[in-house]
Design brief:
Distance between the termini of chain A: 31 Å
Number of strands of chain A: 6
Helix content of chain A: 25-40%
Largest interface: A-B, 42 and 42 residues
Radius of gyration of chain A: 17 Å
Largest sheet of chain A: 3 strands, antiparallel
Order of helices and strands of chain A: HHEHHEEEEEH
Oligomer: homodimer
Strand order of the largest sheet of chain A: 1-3-2
Chain lengths: ~150, ~150
Amino acid sequence: MHEFTDQMLIERIRGAGLKVTAPRLAVLRAIDAGPHSDAETVFGQVKTDLPGTSLQAVYGVLTALTTAGLLRKFESAGSAGRYERYLNDNHHHMICTSCKSVQDVPCVVGQAPCFSPAANHGFAVAIAEVTFWGLCPACQLQPQTL
Amino acid sequence: MHEFTDQMLIERIRGAGLKVTAPRLAVLRAIDAGPHSDAETVFGQVKTDLPGTSLQAVYGVLTALTTAGLLRKFESAGSAGRYERYLNDNHHHMICTSCKSVQDVPCVVGQAPCFSPAANHGFAVAIAEVTFWGLCPACQLQPQTL
DNA sequence: GAGTTGTTTTGATTTAATCAAAACAAGTGG
DNA sequence: CCACTTGTTTTGATTAAATCAAAACAACTC
């Protein structure tokens, strides 16, 4: 399941100009193990391999790593903010309205179709965020709402 | 500024199968006057023309009107949930990263281009939500962040 | 005009997140 | 290898957004 060795993670942290600490390694490992996790979920994961870490530390680490460009935060209706490894691949998210699970979806239609709103009203558009809402395969099998 | 008379608003509420009450009228008027408002903003507006209304009532009214299909709620990173009149026009939003102001943008590229993710992983996609982030004209004139 | 049902008020509670100050540790340079 | 500086984490309190429950109340129907 681990795509990255600790050594690789250490290099990524240091490469971003940040000090390498145990909580930061643990957070990166947690995101690697469970992408699209929120702060609480990351905290739960981190606690198991680095007990004594505080939830506030996790928030701080997530914010620092996001600012440094190692992680990306995305927030969507009805859920806490979630984090994933930052990849400059312009992908989007498909979220299940029932179980809130998240799938990555590449943005393939042309290059970056959604970057061009029809009328931009003078806005300098920097990024376009696309979220697809629907029912995941598992939840489609459920008879009704639980 | 008022697009709708009270009589029209009353008909819309009743048409949705809901009882017509003063707070509901006041909330619809507030949304009409300030689209893309959050609950607190609506509350501030409502208070002026119907003092004694509670914030919780505003939350309740917003939820009821949203469930009934008269309003649409949208939530975006860094802001509280906002409400607008529901229009079945598949429009999207352009939000200023600096001042958080919102502009509607029609979805014109073809019909509903964003409804078709490349690989849907078995998801039954119901809606696609597109948010453009950037700097509004006013904030582009600011030398730097305030 | 009285009754039933749906709505609003009042007040407490939850969740997600942020802030500030003190304790601590990573990476420098001696 | 030790001490210093700076950045990080902990501890504890606080905020913002929203939700819940029960009692008071008002809209629509008969």
